[in-house]
Hints:
The structure holds two protein chains of two kinds.
Chain A: E1 4-13, E2 18-27, E3 30-32, H1 35-38, E4 45-48, E5 53-56, E6 58-63, H2 76-85, E7 88-93, H3 104-117, E8 121-124, H4 140-145, E9 151-152, H5 161-174, E10 178-180, H6 185-188, E11 193-194, H7 197-202, E12 206-207, H8 210-226, E13 230-232, H9 238-249, E14 254-258, H10 261-264, H11 286-297, E15 303-304, H12 313-316, H13 333-344, H14 350-357, H15 359-365, E16 380-390, E17 409-419, E18 422-426
Parallel strand pairs in A: 1-4, 1-5, 6-7, 7-8, 9-10, 10-13, 11-12, 13-14, 14-15
Antiparallel strand pairs in A: 1-2, 2-3, 5-16, 16-17, 17-18
Helix pairs in contact in A: 5-8, 8-9, 9-11
Chain B: H1 18-34, E1 49-54, H2 60-71, E2 75-80, H3 92-101, E3 106-111, H4 116-121, E4 127-133, H5 139-153, E5 160-164, H6 171-183, E6 186-190, E7 206-208, H7 211-214, E8 220-223, H8 239-246, H9 250-253, E9 261-263, H10 276-279, H11 286-307
Parallel strand pairs in B: 1-2, 1-3, 3-4, 5-6, 5-8, 6-7, 8-9
Helix pairs in contact in B: 1-5, 1-11, 2-11, 5-6, 5-11
Amino acid sequence: MGPTIIRNGRIIDPANKRDEIGDLVIANGRIADQSAVHNPKSEIAEINAKGLIVVPGLIDMHVHLREPGFAHKETIASGARAAAAGGFTTVVCMPNTSPIADNPSTITWIKDRARDTASVNVLPTGAISKNLEGDELAPIASIVQSGVVAITDDGKCVQNHELMRRAVEYARMVGVPVLDHCQDYNLVGNGVVNEGEWSTLLGLSGWPAAGEEVVVMRNILLAELCDHHIHCQHISTAGSVRLIREARARGVKISGEVCPHHIALTDASIQNFDTNCKMNPPLRTQRDIDAIIEGIADGTLTIFCSDHAPHAAFEKEVEFDQAPFGIVGLETELGLFIDILLHKRKAISINRLIEMFTVEPAKLLKLDAGALSIGAKADVTLIDPDREWTVDASKFESLSRNTPFHSWKLKGRAVRTIVGGETVWAL
Amino acid sequence: MNTRWNRKDLLGLRELSAAEINFVLETADAFKQVGTREIKKVPALRGKTLVNFFIEPSTRTRTSFELAAFRLSADVINITATASSLSKGETLKDTAKILEANHVDIIVLRHSSAGAPQFLAERLRSSVINAGDGAHEHPTQGLLDTYTIREKKKRFEGLHVAIIGDILFSRVARSNIFALTKLGARVTLVGPSTLVPRDFEKLGVNISYDIDKVLPTVDVVNLLRIQHERQRKEYFPGVGEYIRLFGLTKERAKLLKPDCLIMHPGPINRGIEIDSEVADGNQSVILDQVTNGLAVRMAVLYLCGGIAT
């Protein structure tokens, strides 16, 4: 196949401090310089990117692809299609599959499956503890050798601080960051929604902000003690933002990520017991939303993710307290972040937004991705930041439809996703 | 078509207006009178089918709804958790659809999950009456408590009502709060701080942890059952300390105004939230609540059953 030239787009490549209107050349699946199109051996394919933004392929480092074990919710193939439709060229999948990815053979299976069926790069994570039970360390070094980019018990949280300390120390030796779903089991109990006005009004068990913050604080202390990076997943509270800000100012190796639903919706959304507004951690208050956006703007929170959590309709269409936590997010994530952060709140520049989708996760996970350098693998996303569209869950590439954003009108979305030089999805 | 009532379901009192609540109470007046006749049955719901669908144990509420339905000439069946397919793994949605396929007109639902009645109401043409959903609402209890206060006090404006005990886990407290504040009464919640969190202030009520200060100022005390068997041990140190701080003992009852009403939704823990003598004393209207419950439930079934098609 001959070279491809993406013409007249605004190329934003934060890793190379590039922001200009120009052409991007792809040859042999890699980013190339202009010489590749001067004397082509075969026909040049052209993509008109006028009015579009051309950026390194986006990375979502927090998704649940449900395979192996729950293929009725999602498969690696369908999850990858959803990622492509959302503008993502790389996704990082969580280990709470069945069997759980706490051993090299399951991780090898996921990698093989991804190689054979996925249209985007799928990078697995491994468990911190055996069976995600928080009692014993998983074979972390063997897991890392089998090819994971991080360890996490996501969905669960190691409660034993001593075990967590040893996991972080061990992870430092093998060179992977530790990702943590921050939830204190005693404080949270059987909480299903944010503890506050709405939990009180509706008689639903409260999930207090302190249930997250106590573990964020624990992680800050352990990151200092072990001198190793802990990344706090899906930050949802104002207190967590404050703790992370203070710790980062002191140079602690701590970071945090944001899901779109935690800045798009408040806990008032649960008032009709809509289980598509039930996620873990739960939707919080306007005060928390404002603090998270402030944390994004001042660099406290550095990474965007979806926490894409597909569930079948029959699983979600039950009593509120019995429904599983989580929503699909890959296909609405970019649109929500652009719409809220760029258009509505004007909180950050598009350059910073792209950086948080590319350079930041690539740096944390030490990925060879997130830049449009000459010779880099040609993972590229084309974005129309002003395109207005309406979310239609029935058109999702994901196998699941559990979203609270159906029929939302958003401004901004990906229009083409290129992996290794090949267009894997286009609007 | 009734211009003062157009709901096929009664899910909670939060969504009702003061006018709607008053209309239910007025309708209950007529049905209360029916209960004093020798022939206690009226043909209002003749030919209609009602299912008492109780996924959580209950005797008094279920019996009250069953009697109310009989007196309205409806045909009644009872389904309880153990007898239902739910224990075989069928979802609430499927069970409900099967009831509807059998042309059931009214479903009275008691469920441990908040929001379960709304879940059914959104999916069924049948009327759905909430007979208690988790810690959310128990609207007919709120209505019968309100009815009893109205019957004895003839007004709500200027009345001060104390609701005492486990507010956090109480659907009765929530329904009472919504109804009483809409009707103009002042409500004070009393109980341990762990069971009366400050978030309740956002519902327009006062909170006090000092029962002795509150008792002389109120026109009604509504005591809630302390669900000591269900509570996690962190909420309060024990029954002994609870009684010392919040129990309506004989001595404390002397602090009450002579015309203060003593209410309790039952079942009573005698000697815990209320002393036995106080529960049976002349200020107690606990049995009036039971009688009024029947009239109120007849009114609710009649009104909602008349809307459903």
